[in-house]
Every structure is written in C-alpha cells, then in structure tokens.
Amino acid sequence: MHRPSLVAVALLCVSGAATALAAPGQAAPATPAAGAARAAAAAPDGGARAVAARDDARRAARDLAGLGARDALVATDTVLEPQGRSHVRFQRTYAGLEVVGGDVVLHQGGADGDSLTGPTTRVRVATRPTVAAASATRTARAQLDLQDESARRDLVVLAVGDPPRLAWRVEVRGARADGSPAGELVFVAARGSDGSGGVLDRWPSVLAETGTGQGRYVGTVPVEATRGSQGVFSMVDPTRGASRTYDVSLGRRGVYPVVTDADNTWGDGTLADPQTTAVDAHQGAATTWDFYEDRFGRIGIGDDGVGASSLVHAGRFANAFWDDYCFCMTYGDGGGGLGPLTSYDIVGHEMTHGVTSASAGLVYRGESGGLNEATSDILGTMVEFSAGSATDPGDYVLGSEVFKKYDPATRYIRRMDDPRADGRSLSCYSPRAASVDVHYSSGPANHFFYLLAEGSGAKEINGIAYDSPTCNGAAVSGIGREEATAIWYRALTIYMTPRTDYRAARGATSQAARDLYGAGSVEVATVRAAWAAVRVP
Asked: Are residues 103 and 148 both part of a single domain?
C-alpha cells in the first residue's frame, strides 16, 4: 500500500526539523538462562543445594530409566521444596543428539523413595543421516505457505512416537498473509533408502500467549505476546497484525531488539523497570487497534491487517512521533517534568496520524496540517475514552497524565474545551490558521469537536472540570461522543482530501452527518452550530 512520504509527525511543536528514526530491524532476542535462574530462586539455601540435588538425581534417573553408554542426561530445571523434596528435569541426549520427547523428571525425598516421570524408551538408532540437510529443509518449507520465511535445522532423535527415529528438526518461521508471525517445527526423516525423507511430525513453534503487565499509565493489563520455541516471550501481538514493541535503548544503528521476557510478566508500574514503558506503549497500540476495529471495522492503521511498531526509550526527550517510512511510533522518555510519552491518548494520537496518512492524506502544513493534528487529538482522545481505564480515564486534556505533577487544570499538552488556554493555540478560526504552527491551528477543530460531543458551558467529566466558551456567544448542546466520533471519522475517510481546509472540513462533516443521521437530524444541525461557534464560515 502506498504511504505518503511524511517524514515524521511530532506530537509537540519543536524547533528545527523533526528527524525520523530508521526503520526498526528485528534483532534476535537474547535468550535468558531461565532454567538456571529458576533453580537458584527455588533453592532456599542457595544454588549449592540445587547443584548437589541435580548430581544425585542424575545418577538415580539413569538407573531408573535404564540408560546405556551412549545416553546422557542434562539438567534443565530444579525445584527444591521446603519440606526436603526435590524435582529435577532432564533433557535426554543420545550420542550427543537431543532426544525430542525424551525428557524425564526425577522426584526425590518423598515417602515412597525415588520416582521417575517420563518415557524410558530405549533408543537404538543409526546416527549418520542419509538424507541431506538441504533436502530436508526443502521438504519442511513445502509444508507451509509463509512470507519472508527463514529456516534453521539440526539433527535430533525424534522419540514422540514408537520407535525413535533419526530426524532433521527444521524450524520454519515467517509471516502469514495478514502479517502475523508463524512458525512450525517440522521433523523430516534423516534416513531413507532413496535419499529423501518424509515428514515424521510437526507442531507450532510460535505460540500466542497472554501475559500480565504493569504500566505507569495503564495500570495492570493483559499483554498479548508471542512465545518462541526457546520459551522466551516477545512483545509481538499475533492477534493484532503482529504489532511489535522495540526497545531503542538496547539497539544501535537503526536495529533495535523486540522487548522480551522470560515469564510473560512485564513491568512493575515504575520507571525503574524499563518494561513499564513498553507495557504502556504495547497496551496503547492494542487499544487503538481495537478502537478502530470495533467502532469502524478498520483492521489496523492502514486497514490492511498489518500491525504498526512501537519504539520506546528512544531518548531523554519530551515528544512522540509517527513515521510513515517505518510505519512506526517513536516515544521519548520525557524530560522537563514529563514522564514517558506513552499514555493512551498520546499513543492513539500518533497511530491516528497513520490512519490519516492512509485515508485523507492531509498535507502537514497550513490549514490541512492543523486538521491533521486535530484529527489525531480528536481520535486519540476517543481511544483514551474507549479504554475505560480506571488509572487513565478519558479526558479532553491531551497528555495530562505524562506530567510528573499531575494537574489537568494547568498541566497538559493541549486541551479541547478551550484550546487558547495554553497561551498558543487558536480557539476560534481566523485567516491566521493558515500560517501558524499546525499544533496550534488544530485548535478550532478540537474546539468544534468538543462542542459537538459535549456542548458549551461548564461541566465535569471523569472528575475534571471543563468550561467551554463559544466564539459567537451562542450556546451549543452536544450530541455525545459516539455520534461525534462517527461523523469525524466518516468525514476523514470519505470526504476529506490532502488539501482540505477549514471551510472544506465544515462541508465534509456536514455531509457525513447527513449520511449517518439524515438531512433534518439534530446531528446535522449541531454540526452547523458547532462550526459557527468557532467561527468557521
């Protein structure tokens, strides 16, 4: 899909040119030594007891399993219980080859003595393959229809059936047509009279898993992740177009690793844990995806089922960017009294730039640029409302949550009920809108939307006080957020074009309201009244 060449779209007005980061590479995540860490943690009197338990268990397990001279056991996990029982898991090898399906667990310290869980199948196979590795790889790849696929292979003994067989284990990874990650372990016979091997078995190697995360802004939330074949979890959401979250601080030269975790429990709600910010960004991206899909049937930012990437810890700066080139959002860690810029409304704001790029393509300067920014403020705010979060409830003060001293009455990036309150933005339309910075010329459209949804005058929403004036002195009664959102989205995706200005935006929203609610509806009348209230002719 063609994406207009916006270099980078920033949340805040900054001096100088905004420079987009390079497209994120997909560096292989590091694999933590999970087994060793669990063993040490499980041992109340330290790792020495775990080591002794493993050595004793290995000898007992060999005897119980009846292993021969070519068999070996490698301890992969140890659990020591306070009452003295121990449980040691072993991976089995034969002539140095992993025996897939041959793991056993030795239990000691119980009233009934030692016991063994797992297969005790005797392995007796020739270990020299007659099927070439390249041939086995071709056979495995032929089983899957993936894009951008890669494969790696090793020689193993497959012992999930009877009898055990020498096999090439080929892991094929890639992406499905919708962009979601996929992978399978395909076991191809390594010995065959004609030099070609058939498929002995296969199973998935990329597994969708729901973990738990604690964000600074989103609180405790489910985290959709992907589990790799080594048991490491990655912040890749297979349920939403393989949306990925990367940690820029751990990469270099434009190649950044996906955020990973050993136990699928992410962050602790504090900035001391770098995963906390990743949870906020990942959850914000998921919520934005769901908002567009649930409200409008839009599958992904580009409506093509492809997930966008989130880049966190990009530096000590108080800004966030959307970049068409990498189809990604970049989030600074804050500064000057601001925390990481990863609240629901900011994530929704940045991703909505992608929606605008893929639909109306509003040029990012002049009045169309102001409408571009307003669209992100409007729909990003609606993302925040849609989240229904107790820790970050919806409001019309953009970015108030990221201020370390939370005070939505005075600390925010922009506010929609009275944009001029920040001392820079326009609340009422004038010809100046064509020449001021787009973050400030967004004001009349933001003001229009607030009046359309909530109406003028004083009110309280989710504990925050608002008092929206009108530029013509006339009162406006709102039609509600759901109706106002439907009108703006339809206007954006059906009627707005790259050079839409404020006058054309009035026409686009009026037509959208007629389409949705009828020419004589209250909604159409309120659209006209709200535009008049911000002096758009």
From this structure: no
